[in-house]
Design brief:
By secondary structure, the chain is mainly alpha-helical. It has a single domain (about 75-310), classed as MetI-like fold, CATH 1.10.3720. The chain has eleven helices and no strands. Helix 1 (about 15-55) packs across helix 11, helix 2 (about 70-105) packs across helix 8 (about 225-240) and helix 3 (about 110-125) packs across helix 5.
Length: about 325
Amino acid sequence: MTVTSPSSGLHDPKSAAGRAGDKIFSGTALTAGIVILAILAFVALYLVVESIPALTAGEGELSHGKTSFWSYVWPMMIGTVIASAIALVIATPVAIGVALFISHYAPKRVSQAFGYVIDLLAAIPSVVYGAWGMAFLGPQLVPIYAWLAENAGWIPLFAGGYSQTGRTLFTASVVLAVMILPIITSLCREIFVQTPKLHEEAALALGATRWEMIKMSVLPFARAGIVSAIMLGLGRALGETMAVTLVLSPGALSANIINVGNQTIPSEIALNFPEAFGMRQHELIAAGLVLFVITLAVNMIARWIVSRHKEFSGAN
């Protein structure tokens, strides 16, 4: 004999509401993703369409007098990459060290204070960093530049004199390093604290010191996240405008990073776009397209590096 439950066949309002909520959330998330992709596509389309006149212009048609658009944008590409690379070299070890100190070495109160300071650095506007670099940091670095030019002038990076004002590519790179430092530090800190405690305790139980435990458990586990944090900081450095514009004294491309000269794409656009029209405007938009492609390539490389290590973290 089959007994039928009194509730069988009846409509459950809670489950129906849950299914409706799932559909609404799923649709909202899908819409948000489509909107982001659409915005990116429209930006890319606008840059390509507006860049075509400058990219296809012949000799004598460009406003800056160069023989081609690439001869105009190439020095700025090099300056942008060099400034961002120097900033990354300076900021990365400091950021990882600070993140490890906050997550595994400092007492709780000290780590909270350091975390607050790092978050505060990320909230400072870029124009403030630029003013600080131009008015304070640059003049403070002049004696160091003088020493480098005198004692290490045989190195191309320091050959050919130095700037008396400190408004150089290296000063701009130091400012960029300070700007991307909180980004890399905050992300690395959040990744380090997610290391499984059992792995850390197992390493310590086997007799490892704290540093050996970090090398065996924390750093391998966080490898992909560290790469992501570094690439995110690099993307910020590549696109930074106001700080570099205020600090850098623009000029021709040079191997010397402690003298006036060199330029970046964001700074060039910021300095000239307000008064640009006609072909000059197309040239600057085309330069923006080049920067867009560089940034996109950096992010794609970062995702490829992360995907290589996501199957093995060294701690699982």
